[in-house]
Specification:
Elements: E1 8-14, E2 27-31, E3 35-42, H1 51-75, E4 93-106, E5 126-134, E6 143-148, E7 161-166, E8 176-181, H2 184-230, H3 234-254, H4 258-284, H5 293-301, H6 307-340, H7 346-375, H8 377-385, H9 390-395, H10 397-434, H11 473-479
Antiparallel strand pairs: 1-3, 2-3, 4-5, 4-7, 5-6, 7-8
Helix pairs in contact: 1-3, 1-4, 2-3, 3-4, 3-6, 4-6, 4-10, 6-7, 6-10, 7-10
Length: 480
């Protein structure tokens, strides 16, 4: 799976006719027809693992990848199922429009007095009459007016693009109403800045990260969402779709090699734990998943969908991004530790890797919790206004759902550190023992230009084809 050797930097310097080039860390000394020495330094990624370990890793991941592909083929929905529009919320026809005129008028004259504010202050009489022109659809060019009250949060400006809801069954003159603002330009600009920043900093790897992001979005919109709407098991769909996203993102961003494969296995183990815990605690806490207007509308339009399964699927998919970050970082740390100390045992590597992982856990778990808290901030504000107790707030389904989502994802995140670190330490540790003396590699796995490593000699020292050919007279006397 990992086929490219580590890059060597710096030329090997030779002196004397009998000198031999050296690779790896350290200095190699050789004797031939005359005195000589050579040295070279190698930096960069750790070389490929042994052929045997590549076969073991492939035996695990190839069937898994085949099962994911088979699942995608068998469950591919071919688009979201159709339905009759209800005209409620997102399920309504829309058109594009533009604000062409704004005129200040009296709210009382327009019979549009705002409600009395909760603070009991005076009611403003300054309203606006906005003239909206339809700019798309069969009624392009048609105009209508809308009164903007002073207490409305949405204010208009002349020339601003708006989104219009179209109600074909409404009375004449009331087919259109403003429901939102067009935000295509600022969002496109922000996306462009993001892509530019990723490419400038990440270069080729940044480009591959953007490609992987596009693939992930495609799997989400073309497979996961339509398959759930079609009535397939949300958990099964999330597992297959999430696995496809994980395989594409990790291998495209980090390469098809043993290091990435170990990260994939660690991520799979953590996702399995998240699925088990999520299923158990969603059932135990009697969470229905139907806690918002959006889920209620989905259940109305597609009553065959298991909303509880959608909740569990959301937990699994939401944990993928953070898990990928943790597992890749831990595997990379163990690989670098092995590169720095080729003779380290797997226990030493595991202990050092866990010290790095504990720092990672402390920051990432807090990030995950704060992300969920930020998403639920308006809900928490409502409970604060109601002056409800902490226990009462936590016991409500709205908050309990977020608590389960946060804690289950965090447990899987924490578990991924020791699991992935142990897997990486075992792989690089076992790889050292699997390399024989005739393989032409040092203990760190670097190819030696002068032949196989000499038993009992440090990494990077070669025998130049004869025993005891690695130094001065003391080495030759020992060889004799």
């Amino acid at each position: 799976m990992d086929s490219s050797p580590a890059a060597a930097h710096g030329p090997a310097h030779e002196h004397g006719p009998g000198s031999t080039p050296a690779t790896g860390h350290g200095t190699g000394h050789g004797t031939g027809h005359g005195p000589g020495h050579g040295h070279g330094h190698s930096h960069g990624p750790v070389p490929p693992v042994s052929k045997h370990l590549r076969k073991v890793i492939a035996a695990i991941l190839v069937p898994f990848a085949a099962a994911v592909v088979a699942g995608l083929v068998l469950l591919w929905p071919g688009g979201a199922p159709g339905h009759d529009r209800t005209g409620v919320g997102f399920d309504q026809q829309t058109r594009k429009g533009t604000v062409v005129a704004l005129v200040g008028i009296s709210c009382k004259a327009a019979n549009a007095l705002p409600d009395q504010p909760a603070s009991g202050g005076p009611v403003s009489d300054a309203c606006q009459k906005a003239t909206i022109e339809v700019t798309a659809g069969p009624d392009k060019g048609a105009r209508f007016t809308e009164i903007v009250q002073p207490d409305q949060t949405r204010r208009y400006t002349r020339g601003e693009g708006v989104v219009l809801a179209y109600a074909p069954k409404a009375p004449p003159g009331q087919h259109y109403s403003v429901v939102d603002i067009q935000r295509g330009m600022p969002l496109a600009l922000l996306a462009g800045i993001f892509a530019l920043a990723v490419i400038v900093v990440g270069r080729l790897r940044g480009v591959m990260a953007l490609v992987a992001l596009a693939v992930s979005f495609a799997v989400l919109t073309l497979f996961i969402l339509p398959a759930i709407l079609r009535g397939d098991d949300p958990l099964l769909v999330a597992v297959i779709g999430g696995s496809a996203i994980m395989l594409a993102a990790l291998y495209m961003c980090h390469g098809l090699n043993a290091r990435t494969s170990v990260a994939v296995i660690g991520t799979l183990c953590s996702l399995f734990l998240i699925g088990l815990l999520g299923s158990a605690f969603i059932g135990w806490a009697h969470l229905t998943g139907n806690t918002s207007d959006e889920t209620g509308l989905i259940h109305t339009l597609y009553p065959h969908i298991e909303i509880k399964g959608v909740l569990l699927a959301g937990i699994i998919i939401g944990s993928l991004g953070v898990l990928d970050d943790v597992t890749v970082t831990q595997v990379a740390a163990v690989w670098e530790l092995k590169d720095a100390d080729p003779g380290a045992s797997w226990r030493t590597l595991y202990g050092a890797g866990m010290r790095i992982g504990r720092d990672h856990i402390a920051s990432v778990v807090n990030t995950l919790v704060m992300a969920y808290a930020g998403a639920a901030l308006p809900l928490l504000l409502l409970f604060s206004i109601a002056r409800s107790g902490v226990v009462q707030v936590a016991d409500s389904e709205l908050v309990a759902e977020e608590i389960v989502r946060t804690l289950v994802g965090s447990i899987g995140l924490v578990a991924s550190v020791p699991v992935t670190t142990a897997l990486a330490a075992l792989v690089v540790g076992a790889d050292r023992g699997l390399r024989g003396s005739g393989s032409g590699h040092t203990t760190a796995g670097r190819p030696l230009a002068g032949g196989p490593a000499v038993p009992g000699q440090p990494a990077g020292v070669r025998g130049a084809g004869r025993p005891g050919g690695s130094g001065g007279g003391s080495h030759r006397r020992r060889a004799k």
